[in-house]
């Protein structure tokens, strides 16, 4: 009898142990779920919508306003810009020569930034591989900042190469060097903030920019939220707000403005993000199959005949279909103030309060 009682007691202990282990598993799983829910909720709560928007405008060296009144509504005027050669010297082109004209109309009534144009791949790589050229570029840009009292720099470094680890590392190293040089007194008596312009499709198309590293070396990121549909590609919006099919059997937007903001804002602080809208459209000439016959033509929105325009409900951008005098069908997609305003409302809801427009004179 005593042996039976011992066996029963042992069985009871085993059963209680199993029950306790299952209860612990359930409790821990429940706790983890609750923590995940709280994390998601806290993430939502951490996004504080903004009410006010800071607006910037790019002013190209080839089209500078005559008077300040034409740009006085903007908080920042961004001069576009100067360009280096392979040695880091600034090229003596209209970009350099017209700085005086830009400064005269800005009149120090608003912040003004200087764009460094770096579009030539052979020049860019030559500078990447030459430490002295990098130093010369920083010194020469600093001289312009000091002479004309610029408030900072926008580095427009564009590369359309295969995104290898080596190229990515070169870009990061250069940005770090350039930004550090302007921050540590290359310009006498002050630091000069450096902002980096990046493609809106950086994450989607796997560009050679390590955003997580780059954002640590600059004061902010300017996202170029345009050219999602390329002039040499198939027709579509400049950068669709949301994605959807263009129609039965039509191509689907595989990326959108909202996802772009999510991708960047997971890495870059929202206060350090400025979104740039391209105020122009692309006009594609179509063949019998509805596919482009040649590269699209870029058209400023102030040159577009908007009669008959349709507003796309998903992208929020507009398109116009027409037939030219030679009988070819066309489709023209474009961003305008109305579509950009819709996107700005979305940005405000996401805690992003800085936007810009490319470029003065297009709208």
UniProtKB/TrEMBL annotation:
Gene3D superfamilies: 3.10.50.10, Glycosidases. Residues 56-363 form the GH18 domain. InterPro entries: Chitinase_II/V-like_cat, Chitinase_insertion_sf, GH, Glyco_hydro18_cat. The lineage of its organism: Bacteria, Candidatus Roizmaniibacteriota. One of its GO terms (molecular function) is chitin binding. This is GH18 domain-containing protein. Signal peptide: none annotated. GO terms for biological process: carbohydrate metabolic process. It comes from Candidatus Roizmanbacteria bacterium CG11_big_fil_rev_8_21_14_0_20_36_8.
